[in-house]
Amino acid sequence: MFIEGGIIGLILGKVRGGRFSNFSYLSIRAWPLIFLAFFIQVSPAFTNKISALSSFQGYAYGLSNGVIILLLLFNLNKRGLKVMLAGLLLNLVAVYFNGWKIPVSMEGLQLAGLDAMVEAIQSGKIANYIPLDSLQHWSKYLAKFIVIPKPYPLAKVISIGDLFITLGLTLFIYGEMTKNHLHSRSRMIKFGYKGTI
């Protein structure tokens, strides 16, 4: 849902008179954590071929979320990031109570046309997912069971946490685009003027 959240945020920001140039003023504390989280997220694609590291697959999603949560805590002053943090915490709770695996509705995946993913989960090729119908714990309500089916081009199954994350990202982008940087520009112009005297 990151793509959808980003696009909606850009559209809303532009409609409300926001500027794309505002992103040049964007300042994120501890930003290298973004790359660390991404590396952890994609690492199972490489570690599954190394038997000594195969057990790491089950923890990759939770650890990646943990790194992003740390990043958000450093930047809670920005619009939308508290909402995004709530979504990440909901997803983290879901995997914590299910052996660090992501609970997902198999029927939902089939409705979304993701039959190949269903087969991969059932065969064990995708080790960090667990079928929703095997759960009895209340955490099943935080699982990925909300279906966005075809003909939507990015058909998928998402969780309540994912909805919060998408909303938070939309608010963040909208907030950055519509933020008033006039004061910062006036100081820069004033400094340049003094330099010419």
TrEMBL record:
Record field: transmembrane: 26-46, 58-76, 83-100, 154-175
Keywords attached to this entry: Membrane, Transmembrane, Transmembrane helix
Protein's name in the database: DUF5317 domain-containing protein
Pfam families per the UniProt record, alphabetical: DUF5317
Domain of life where this protein originates: Bacteria
